[in-house]
Write a structure and sequence with these properties.
The complex is a heterodimer of chains A (388) and B (142).
Chain A lengths: L7 E7 L10 H16 L8 E5 L6 H8 L6 E5 L6 H13 L5 E9 L11 H5 L3 H6 L10 H16 L3 H16 L13 H6 L2 E4 L1 E2 L8 E9 L1 H4 L7 E9 L18 H14 L8 E3 L6 H9 L8 H4 L18 H4 L6 H12 L11 E5 L6 E8 L1
Parallel strand pairs in A: 2-3, 2-4, 9-10
Antiparallel strand pairs in A: 1-7, 1-8, 4-7, 5-6, 8-11, 10-11
Helix pairs in contact in A: 1-2
Chain B lengths: L13 H8 L4 E5 L5 E2 L14 E5 L3 E10 L11 E7 L5 E6 L15 E9 L11 E7 L2
Classes of the chains: A alpha/beta (388), B mainly beta (142).
Chain lengths: 388, 142
């Protein structure tokens, strides 16, 4: 028994991506969901399942009220910040594959720039009376309390172990911003950067420069999942969910898995092994990838965990435009979270869908197999999307 | 609120902060099999026992990795702030705030460098919220 091919993505929708939406987070999610359902050729009344992130501030029932939904038969949430992104699609696919629900919408909406900014110290995260709060007692009081700093600690050791340089990280930023520059939906539309710009940008958490860090954004994205049978009658060519996997590895923490013999992101290796097993594909089969890019070093480390290159070899893999449009593996053709917007990975899933449909503004020719990953440094998830 | 973010203290980590108040750097030990563990937890991963105590560390560590935080502002800290990940000779790893080391340049922190523990006593906040003195480890060059 396999999940592969048992569900399809039939609709995608989003609000504009901005720094100040001027609307509530719930309204953003309603707007994105309506857009996704319109794209799918479905009505709100067709939806009987909703899934999102535990971090989302809009409950499934609140969204259902605003959409005028009737009976909901499936609702669920996934933990661990951006690591939830692809897992929401896995939830939807599992619900559809088992007949628990017919049409499931995965959504994520927030005012992450004009409201609560994830890039700032989230003192509440250290005040939680739960195991996450206890875990954070080893870091926050000492000043290790921002996502950038927690990743910087990983990045510094990765540089030390494999001779990676800040310029190697910069290759990711340059690729993202090149792709964003030709994407009208991207916040940084028309604003490419050079490696010199990256190197000259101010230090945030050494070795991470400002241009190694994703944006903070306001907006929402929604994605509609249903069965392949139902998808046949809908207007868009269905995008097959060839694989959907979650992963957490031994001695896992949220952003601070520092206590393994070798630090790194083995949780993405867990995801990778299951993606290749479910899909029957291998890294050379992938035409383009959306790799979660809250911080550039993790894109290099993901390429290694996913099997696109060996350990420590990503620095060579990303050189000479290899991850840019026209390169051997175009990555983040929408501009990524550095270039398009930070929507906790959900905008990357939408780009994966566009690539399979052939409708991306930065279309990779004949893209038939697309890989998408979710937040790194946390328990995470991934997808392989293919044409039907 | 002034001062750094205060830790949530519960049954599974209280021994550590009770230790720092006495200027002891404690590492959880399993009373059944002796395994040392940091960060700690209620069930020994080596022998499944729930019987835990602690040892007092020598207070030395070797830099496994580090970062220098320049932005954003951190509650109760001055920037730039040097934070390291230390391998302790007892065999555990620990996040460490570092003082007295330049944030950059030739004299900046290096992987493999040895540091020793000292103590950072944070006075009551005056806010009424967990308003007691807090002592945290802070590391410096020997």
């Amino acid at each position: 028994m396999s999940l592969s091919g048992k569900a399809a993505i039939v609709g995608i929708g989003a609000t504009e991506f901005s720094k100040e939406s001027g609307r509530s987070e719930l309204q953003l999610s309603v707007e994105a969901t309506r857009a996704a359902l319109a794209d799918a050729g479905l009505r709100p009344q067709d939806v009987d399942g909703l899934t999102t992130f535990t971090m989302d501030t809009s409950s499934e029932i609140a969204l259902a009220r605003e959409l005028g939904l009737g009976d909901l038969r499936f609702f669920s949430r996934i933990n661990y910040g951006g690591g939830a992104a692809c897992a929401t699609i896995q939830q939807a696919a599992m619900a559809v594959a088992t007949g628990v629900a017919d049409v499931v919408v995965a959504y994520r909406g927030f005012n992450e720039r004009s409201g609560q900014r994830f890039g700032q110290v989230q003192s509440w995260a250290a005040q939680q009376v739960n195991t996450n709060g206890i875990d954070n007692s080893w870091t926050y009081p000492l000043g290790l309390s921002t996502p950038a700093a927690t990743v910087a600690m990983q990045a510094r050791r990765y540089m030390h172990d494999y001779g990676v340089t800040s310029e190697d990280f910069g290759a990711v930023a340059v690729a993202d911003r090149r792709h964003a520059a030709t994407n009208p939906a991207a916040f940084f539309y028309g604003k490419p950067i050079t490696l010199e710009d990256h190197q000259a940008s101010r230090m945030i958490a050494d070795p991470l420069h400002l241009l190694d860090c994703c944006q903070e954004s306001d907006g929402a994205v929604a994605i509609v999942v249903t069965s392949p049978e139902r998808a046949r009658d809908l207007p868009n060519p269905p995008v097959r969910i060839a694989a959907a996997a979650q992963g957490s590895a031994a001695d896992q923490y949220v952003m601070t898995s520092y206590y393994r013999d070798e630090i790194g992101i083995p949780e993405m290796g867990v995801v990778a092994r299951d993606l290749w097993r479910q899909s029957g594909l291998a890294p050379p089969d992938i035409d383009t990838a959306v790799l979660y890019d809250h911080f550039t070093p993790y894109v290099l480390m993901q390429l290694e965990e996913l099997g696109f290159c060996g350990r420590g070899e990503a620095k060579e893999f990303v050189r000479d435009g290899a991850i840019e449009l026209g390169g051997r593996l175009p990555v983040n053709t929408h501009g990524g979270q550095l270039g398009e917007a930070y929507l906790h990975g959900m905008n990357g899933i939408a780009e994966g869908v566009r690539q399979v449909r052939g409708s991306s503004v930065n279309q990779v020719e004949d893209a038939a197999h697309v890989l998408v990953t979710a937040g790194t440094g946390v328990p995470t998830s991934g997808l392989v999307l293919t044409s039907s | 609120m002034s001062g750094p973010v205060r830790p949530v203290i519960g049954r599974d980590n209280a021994y550590f902060f009770e230790g720092t108040a006495k200027r002891e750097l404690r590492i959880q030990s399993c009373n059944a099999c002796g395994t040392l563990r940091h960060p700690p937890g209620p069930a020994c991963p080596a022998c499944d026992a729930y019987d835990r105590g602690h040892v007092v560390a020598r207070g030395e560590g070797t830099v496994y990795s580090y970062t220098v935080v320049h932005a954003p502002k951190l509650p109760g800290k001055e920037l730039p702030l040097v934070i390291a990940l230390l391998d302790l000779p007892e065999g555990v790893r620990m996040v460490a705030e570092v003082t007295g080391v330049p944030p950059e340049g030739e004299d900046g922190l290096r992987i493999g460098e040895r540091l020793v523990v000292d103590w950072n006593v944070i006075p009551p906040t005056g806010s009424g919220h967990r308003d007691e003195e807090l002592t945290l480890p802070i590391w410096r060059r020997p």
